[in-house]
Design a protein that fits this description.
mainly beta, globular, seven-stranded mixed β-sheet
């Protein structure tokens, strides 16, 4: 069973930065996409960013473009989400995901990590 372990969440003031990390127990295949999603109470989980493991190509939700950066360390089987210029609307539980497409039904999820932005 593949395991994804997130770290790096917490409380930050508006305008601040956080970096989330997600380490995968098995090296992703070239066909895999590593993604970050987030969820707030009463809302559906939403896509934030993704990175194609084969070539490092990145994808972002429109309202995080220019503020968030997804990256990877292939030697550590780890994907990062650098979050800058945070605002209260970024407050959510953030989930790491590994699949052939972001969030596909057969994909694997981390346990989630809380990010809280105080205004």
């Amino acid at each position: 069973q593949v395991q994804l372990v997130e770290s790096g969440g917490g409380l930050v003031e508006a305008g601040g930065s956080l970096r989330l990390s997600c380490t995968v127990s098995e090296r992703p295949y070239s066909s895999h996409v590593m993604g970050w999603f987030r969820q707030t109470p009463g809302k559906e989980r939403e896509f934030v960013a993704a990175l194609r493991w084969s070539n490092g190509r990145t994808y972002y939700k429109d309202n995080v473009k220019g503020r968030f950066i997804i990256s990877r360390d292939t030697g550590k089987n780890t994907v990062y989400l650098q979050m800058n210029s945070l605002n209260a609307e970024d407050t959510a539980v953030y989930y790491c995901n590994r699949g052939t497409t972001p969030g596909d039904p057969d994909s694997f999820w981390g346990q989630g990590i809380q990010v809280t932005v105080s205004s």
